[in-house]
């Protein structure tokens, strides 16, 4: 090896070591336990306190200040469609939780069900985030206002942000999985056979499914029609494909092929 090659090799090695050292220093300075677990949205959409006259938990729901206010928010700012859907999702999830034989946070489960579709409403809808994230950010703000411990808040945030994402909830705290399954039960009928006919009839009688299949799809569209890019690679994209004429989704394979990197 001549001197020039040696210098080139050692310079490259020194550069790699320097880069590696820098990255190691950055990684060491930013370990997870040294920073907050949550990164706040750029724009905070305020969650108001509902009027006292709306703060009344429904029969069968844990009766606490948190559940009363969550119910009040549904009464005052949501729609009859989402009010009924959120309650049914809770009761399905609660029944599946009972069947599991495991202990879970019933109060938090209801709050998750109450907030899980809030991001579909204009009042709580951001310009750039998925509606699930808008809903999760709303519940975080609500729970922080009531000084709920951070660990409970994170469970609620995860449950709501992941409630349309398959394959993950089963590895999260039980409340996350129960919300996912309760919503899937109500919207898609998944697990229908695991709840008795008597209980199904009782819950639907109390919280009717009037034209639900068509109206929930329209509610989804209304929640993200102004930001269809947030639905890409999610189940919500199917709503856009159905309702929006000439809707064109991005193609992951094409994105890979069009990367600016050389194919080396």
Automatic annotation (TrEMBL):
This is Secreted protein. PANTHER family: CYANAMIDE HYDRATASE DDI2-RELATED. Residues 83-173 form the HD domain. Keywords: Signal. It comes from the Bacteria. It comes from Edaphobacter modestus. Residues 1-24 form the signal peptide. PROSITE patterns: TAT.
């Amino acid at each position: 090896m001549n001197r020039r090659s040696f210098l080139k090799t050692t310079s490259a090695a020194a550069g790699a070591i320097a880069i590696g050292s820098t990255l190691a220093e950055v990684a060491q300075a930013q370990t997870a336990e040294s920073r907050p677990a949550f990164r706040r949205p750029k724009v905070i959409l305020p969650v108001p306190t509902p009027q006292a006259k709306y703060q009344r938990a429904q029969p069968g729901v844990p009766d606490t200040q948190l559940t009363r206010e969550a119910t009040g928010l549904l009464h005052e700012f949501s729609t009859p469609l989402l009010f009924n859907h959120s309650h049914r999702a809770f009761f399905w999830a609660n029944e599946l939780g009972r069947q599991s034989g495991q202990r879970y946070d019933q109060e938090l489960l209801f709050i998750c069900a109450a907030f899980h579709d809030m991001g579909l409403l204009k009042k709580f809808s951001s310009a750039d985030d998925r509606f699930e994230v808008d809903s999760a950010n709303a519940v975080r703000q609500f729970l922080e206002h009531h000084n709920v411990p951070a660990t409970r808040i994170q469970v609620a945030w995860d449950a709501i942000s992941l409630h349309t994402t398959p394959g993950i909830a089963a590895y999260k705290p039980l409340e996350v999985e129960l919300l996912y399954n309760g919503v899937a039960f109500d919207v898609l009928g998944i697990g229908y056979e695991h709840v008795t006919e008597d209980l199904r009839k009782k819950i639907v009688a109390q919280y009717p499914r009037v034209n639900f299949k068509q109206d929930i799809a329209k509610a989804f569209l209304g929640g993200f029609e102004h930001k269809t890019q947030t639905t890409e690679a999610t189940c919500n994209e199917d709503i856009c494909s159905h309702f929006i004429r000439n809707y064109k989704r991005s193609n992951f394979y094409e994105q890979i092929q069009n990367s600016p990197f050389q194919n080396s």
